[in-house]
Each structure stands twice: as C-alpha cells, then as structure tokens.
Design brief:
alpha/beta, two-stranded parallel ribbon, 15% strand
Length: 384
C-alpha cells in the first residue's frame, strides 16, 4: 500500500500520463527492490520511493525530468552484495598473483610453477604469513575479509584499524616469530579502504608537510619504532600496498602521481616502495562533465551533461561549502556544487554516499546561502 502510494505521488510530481507512469513504475519497483531500498542511511519509515518523492519536489516542474534522468540513466549504486564480492576477490586476485611473482623470482622459476613443488608451496605460504593487512576505516570491512580468508590468513595478521598500541605490536611480533622464525617480520603491508574518489584524502602536501591517511600511518610506524624498538614486527625495507575496493580513474591517477612523488622526495618515509591497486576501477566517463583547464569551470562532456550541471548550479546552497571550507581549500576548490574535489560523481555506496558525489544527491541544508537542499540519499557526514 505504501509502495503504491509513493508511486502515485511520483507520477503526480512528474506529471506522467498513464502509459509513462506504468512503464516507470516497473523500473522503479525493480530498482527499489534489487538495490536502492538496501541503502543503510534511509531514515525510519523511508525507503527509496518515499525519498525520491521528496527529492523531486524540490525542483521546479520544468527541471524534474532532468533530475529524474540523472537517477535513471547516470546513477551508479554499489550494493552490499557487490561490495562483498569485491572484498572476497581481494586476496585471490590482488595478493596471490603478487606473491606468486615474488616467490617465483626468489626461487628462479616461472610463476605458474610455484605450487608445483613442496618447496614452492611452502615458500608461498611463508611469504603470505609475512603480509600485514590494516583497515583504514570502518569501510574496509575487515570482518568480511577475515571470513572470506579463514584458514589462509591468520587472525594475527589482519588489523581492523590503525590505532595499534605497543602491546599489540609486541603480540604481533611474538606470533609471527613463533611461526616463521626468531627474525621474522612483515615484509608487505597492505593498507585497505573501501573507496577513493579523488586520492587527496589518502595523501596530500599542505604547507610543505605530508598530510592524509598515509602520513598518519607513517607516524604510527615511527612512534611504534620508538616505543617497542626491536619488537616492531615490520621489516625496515617493507613493501607498501595501497588498496581500495573501489576507485575512480581520477583517484588512481592522483595516487600514482603523489605516491611516486613521496617515494622520491619523502626523505624519512618508512616504506621501500609502494603499489597502488583497486578491486574495481570506475571509468573516467562516469564523471558528470569535466573541468576546463583554461577556465577551471565545469563543462559538459561527451555525454551532454549540460542540463545536469545547470541543476547543480541552480539548486545549490553555498552554506555547504562554508561548512566544509577548510577541507575544500586544501584541494583548491571554491564550491561544493560538484562534490568534494569537483569529482562530480553520480555515485552512491550502500553504506553511505561519498561527499565526492554530486551534492544534489546527498546535501541537506537550511537555505542559508541559496537553495534549501534535500537529499535523495541521506549522508552521514564526519565533517558535519
């Protein structure tokens, strides 16, 4: 009954004729059931259809068709089951091929021959035990990673967060040395997170100082060296792996450039080399429009996104930028019309909507400096 009422309200808001309404009802019901109703931050008593009614009503009648088309034709929603598949594929598709090449080089054999002998299999198992996996946020879903790799990864090589105290470091050292020998340490460290859109949150230079998640990890390792000394279970020349379950093309490009810069110019870094990987790489064409390098303005791309960009300008409250100004200034932007770092993504993750997405999708403001924005997907804002 509630579902039917919401559909009728959408038809009224959109001023659809019967044939159009019937066609759109089928699509809306399908997508609601298969994906959108699973969004974890819908408020009590509200699911996708109810949220869509409220969201569409904020637009003037002539603009609602463009807004609806944004949802139907451009929105990408990554569901819980899709994210789980990406997490489950992390070890077999990212970690295993890397270690197979390392072990093959060590034994001077071809990678496909590693498991063809007892020595190769034993060496691979030992090298896998010398990998440390660290989650960078709740989104890293370490619980899912552990369950997916039960029996192949030890509980003592997977850490849910970066807040590791001296006693935990000593415990990790004791466990790995008990299994792999008195001098054993982790030779590869994997930093894991769910999503990156711009790459700037992970690593950036501010006032000639490295900032971001990588800088926090570096400080943690240095502090651990000072506090536990020889009990630190991380090798002096360890390999760093930066893995995101989902990454945009823009973020990968930024990370490659900035991490390469860090490898060359970060004089006191603790890692020897760094590798950037992702479970799913979103194409550059996902972005709504593109930045004109001459004017720094957002312009329509090959998919003729001009009408959507106009909506972003028209239905915007600059109070959103003022609330996040410190973080926006760090990446050189002066508006949040297109999301953080001007990523302009029509993207929603099932557990939250990234602030790199078009602000039309998630912003909620009080009409302080523009349009009174209403979200389609309510966002939990850690900067709010």
């Amino acid at each position: 009954m509630i579902n039917s009422l919401a559909l009728n309200l959408i038809a009224d808001v959109m001023d659809w004729e019967n044939d159009t309404a019937t066609r759109e009802y089928a699509w809306l019901q399908l997508m609601s059931a298969v994906k959108y109703d699973g969004y974890s931050d819908f408020r009590a008593g509200v699911r996708f259809l109810e949220s869509l009614v409220t969201w569409l009503k904020q637009f003037e009648p002539d603009d609602r068709e463009v807004a609806y088309a944004l949802v139907k034709r451009r929105l990408v929603y990554i569901s819980s089951s899709e994210m789980q598949r990406v997490i489950e594929n992390f070890v077999p598709e990212i970690v295993t091929p890397y270690l197979r090449k390392v072990v093959a080089a060590e034994l001077n054999i071809a990678p496909y021959m590693v498991w063809g002998s007892q020595k190769g299999a034993k060496t691979f198992s030992s090298r896998l035990r010398k990998c440390l996996f660290i989650g960078l946020s709740d989104g890293s879903r370490i619980d899912v990673l552990r369950r997916a790799n039960a029996g192949s990864l030890s509980q003592e090589q997977i850490l849910p967060m970066m807040n590791i105290d001296p006693e935990k470091w000593k415990g990790l050292s004791k466990d790995i040395r008990k299994e792999e020998g008195k001098d054993a340490r982790f030779e590869d460290v994997f930093l894991i997170d769910d999503f990156t859109a711009s790459g700037t949150t992970f690593i950036r230079m501010v006032d000639n100082e490295w900032k971001g998640k990588l800088a926090k990890f570096e400080k943690m390792v240095k502090d651990a060296k000072d506090s536990v000394g020889e009990s630190l279970p991380i090798a002096d020349d360890y390999n760093l792996h930066i893995h995101h379950y989902v990454s945009t093309f823009q973020a990968r490009k930024t990370l490659l450039e900035r991490v390469n810069d860090a490898e060359q110019n970060w004089s006191d870094k603790t890692f020897k080399s760094a590798v950037i990987t992702e479970g799913t790489l979103l194409p550059n064409t996902l972005k709504i429009g593109s930045i004109n390098p001459n004017t720094s303005e957002m312009v329509a791309g090959d998919l003729d996104d001009g009408p959507i960009l106009e909506l972003c300008k028209k239905y915007y409250d600059h109070g959103l930028f003022q609330r996040l100004e410190i973080h926006c200034r760090e990446v050189g932007q002066d508006t949040m019309q297109y999301g953080y770092a001007n990523c302009a993504l029509p993207l929603v993750l099932e557990h939250n909507t990234p602030n790199n997405a078009l602000s039309l999708l998630w912003a909620e403001t009080d009409n302080a400096n523009g349009h009174n924005m209403r979200p389609l997907f309510h966002r939990r804002d850690r900067h709010g």
